[in-house]
Amino acid sequence: MLAYILRRVGQSLLVVFVMSAIVFAGVFAIGNPIDILINPQADQNEIARATAALGLDKPLPVQYWTFLTNALSGELGRSFSSNIPAIDLILQRMPATVELAFTAMVMAIVLGLPLGLWAGLKPDTATAKAIMAGSILGFSLPTFWVGLVLIMVFSVQLGWLPPNGRGETVMLLGIPVSFLTVDGLRHLAMPALNLALFKLSLLIRLTRAGTREALAQDYVRFARAKGVSMERVVRVHVLKNIMIPIVTVTGLELGSLLAFSIVTETIFAWPGMGKLLIDSINLLDRPVIVAYLLIIVLVFVVINLVVDVAYTVLDPRVRLSGRMA
Hints:
The chain is mainly alpha-helical. 74% of the residues lie in helices and 2% in strands.
């Protein structure tokens, strides 16, 4: 186990290094931040001074080497617009995004697994057909449109929920969270639901497909023939065999929620990393953009490692050495 984890950490560091070069070069190519940060009426001397102060007068390889050496000590550059370390800006916004993403994923799992099981165990019932039809809608409806509809219905028409912001927060282990307050939960409900809709539909269809496949296996038929109750068959045989693909998809989708909640955070003015990224792109704030993307790469790498290790817990037949082969 230790050797496997060390090997994966080495591979992860290589991935992060390659991605840092790609991200840095890509962000470098999108434009010159001086055009936005400096007054258009400034003369060439002022522009040259500002360019030198930000280190933008150096060639790209030199800028990347400076960034890389600073990154090894935990410094990912300073924001061009606010002159604050980029990592500090991101860490200030990260709790809001993590809270939103985990809430959305919990909603998707809590609803998706039982609904998918029901649709798989009783596929010919009207309820199962309605569940599958609803999952198709979840895949089809655009996130931004669903968010606007939620605001129109629950905020404008009914007045039940606030349309934007994070609401009241309290400190939990030194981290501000909103799910422990009533006002925070009211602010969290709509964006979390909007973010969970696609993941919910995905888990419903994945669970249903796995359940139908597992029920057709010989060991399930044999258990039923011995008189084992359907409840025990589902709990002992079906769930154990469908959890590996579900864990895989859930891990990857959690990473995507953390990385790509930009639309939802923008619609509901949720003060998370996604909104920070949009603001930074508008200002061509390269250090913040690069730092954000590298943190997202690290998140995906860590989640993949955790998912791989979780395989052996769910199914001892899956060996870590076999997964490395």
